[in-house]
């Protein structure tokens, strides 16, 4: 680099610094209250119950194998930090709080120091590998949904300690609650262990899950939730590990798992239609089956060249403990993969899914 080029670059850098300084100085007072800085928060807080799709690290200090706090998880997170999120970067609840101008990241309730601001804007109680079937979390020693409700009561007390009872009631009243679980019940408990499949056929097992999910919705409503987004099941038979386990030599989508997911979804749509009450608690069924199936079937339209294998290892079976950078290789380009490990989507796929949710459901959730 010549002296002249260096000088030009320094001048440009100087201009950039000035421009940033001006932008900061001109930002209206209070714009840092919502750390996204892109306008007023659309809800005061987001509160999350569920499984690994929405778990930002609550399992990290549990005695369980189901954790994602090691590389390559988090390889595209700030500082490549493996926070416990089950992806290469952000997970859906991070994109949800960003999209609602609430904050940049959805923190876990457990294992981190929560600032007053964190408490005021909501936390996630979700635990990877939990489910609506009470047996599901027990098999893998993770947090039950009942325990997540208990943690909410503890959280609420802490929030009262920070902002008082009246403001706490206002925050809960305005908050968006998200419920997302059920894939582990079908993929793990029903199709991988013998504990349920000997007693239940698919429709009767789905009945058990529907009653568990309906009970959870009642419990969340009883917390004072006035807006609940209930996330349905994805095409479980099309995730890489389930193709490997049930999809035959060509690793096709496994139809029984997809049938179970679709049956659960249609039953929950009915349950929610019957339970929702705009005067007390508005509940919205959020379909993610269609968009994930679309990404898997027509990946090329979205820039995905690999839709049946995860980015981690062979992509056919590695998840949590088996997806470990010490033992397996990582794909060359995570951005062209729908799945990061053999079970969980990549950050880029999650972003597309959340954009779809915002486009199709936000008006109903915030009405
Ligand atoms: C990685 O994949 C993305 C998405 O398909 C694509 O836009 C990008 O060019 C790829 N990067 C490389 C280095 O091939």
TrEMBL record:
<feature type="signal peptide">
    <location>
        <begin position="1"/>
        <end position="33"/>
    </location>
</feature>
<comment type="similarity">
    <text>Belongs to the 'GDSL' lipolytic enzyme family.</text>
</comment>
<keyword id="KW-0732">Signal</keyword>
<protein>
    <submittedName>
        <fullName>Uncharacterized protein</fullName>
    </submittedName>
</protein>
<dbReference type="InterPro" id="IPR035669">
    <property type="entry name" value="SGNH_plant_lipase-like"/>
</dbReference>
<dbReference type="Pfam" id="PF00657">
    <property type="entry name" value="Lipase_GDSL"/>
</dbReference>
<dbReference type="InterPro" id="IPR036514">
    <property type="entry name" value="SGNH_hydro_sf"/>
</dbReference>
<dbReference type="InterPro" id="IPR001087">
    <property type="entry name" value="GDSL"/>
</dbReference>
<dbReference type="InterPro" id="IPR050592">
    <property type="entry name" value="GDSL_lipolytic_enzyme"/>
</dbReference>
<dbReference type="GO" id="GO:0016788">
    <property type="term" value="F:hydrolase activity, acting on ester bonds"/>
</dbReference>
């Amino acid at each position: 680099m010549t002296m002249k080029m260096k000088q030009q670059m320094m001048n440009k850098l100087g201009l950039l610094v000035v421009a940033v300084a001006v932008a900061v100085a001109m930002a209206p007072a209070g714009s840092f209250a919502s750390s996204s800085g892109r306008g007023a928060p659309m809800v005061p807080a987001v509160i999350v119950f569920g499984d690994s799709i929405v778990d930002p690290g609550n399992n990290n200090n549990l005695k369980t194998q189901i954790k994602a706090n090691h590389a390559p998880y988090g390889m595209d997170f700030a500082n490549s930090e493996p926070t416990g999120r089950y992806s290469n970067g952000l997970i859906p609840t991070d994109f949800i709080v960003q999209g609602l101008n609430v904050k940049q990241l959805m923190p876990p309730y457990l294992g981190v120091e929560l600032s007053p601001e964190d408490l005021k804007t909501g936390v996630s109680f979700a635990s990877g590998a939990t489910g609506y079937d009470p047996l599901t979390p027990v098999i893998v020693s993770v947090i039950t949904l009942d325990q997540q409700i208990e943690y909410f009561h503890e959280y609420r007390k802490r929030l009262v300690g920070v902002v008082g009872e009246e403001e706490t009631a206002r925050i809960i009243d305005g908050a968006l609650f998200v419920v997302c679980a059920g894939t582990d019940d079908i993929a793990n408990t029903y199709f991988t262990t013998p504990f349920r499949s000997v007693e239940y056929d698919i429709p009767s097992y789905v009945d058990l899950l529907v009653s568990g999910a309906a009970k959870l919705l009642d419990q969340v409503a009883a917390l004072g939730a006035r807006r609940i987004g209930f996330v349905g099941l994805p095409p479980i038979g099309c995730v890489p590990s389930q193709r490997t386990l049930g999809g035959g030599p060509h690793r096709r989508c496994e139809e029984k798992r997809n049938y179970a997911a679709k049956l659960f979804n249609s039953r929950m749509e009915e349950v929610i239609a019957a339970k929702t009450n705009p005067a007390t608690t508005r509940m919205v069924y959020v379909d993610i089956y269609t968009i994930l199936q679309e990404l898997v079937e027509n990946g090329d339209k979205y820039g995905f060249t690999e839709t049946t294998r995860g980015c981690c290892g062979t992509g056919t079976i590695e998840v949590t403990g088996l997806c470990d950078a010490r033992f397996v290789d990582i794909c060359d380009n995570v951005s062209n993969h729908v799945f990061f490990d053999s079970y969980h989507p990549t950050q880029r796929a999650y972003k597309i899914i959340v954009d779809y949710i915002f486009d199709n459901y936000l008006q109903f959730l915030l009405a």
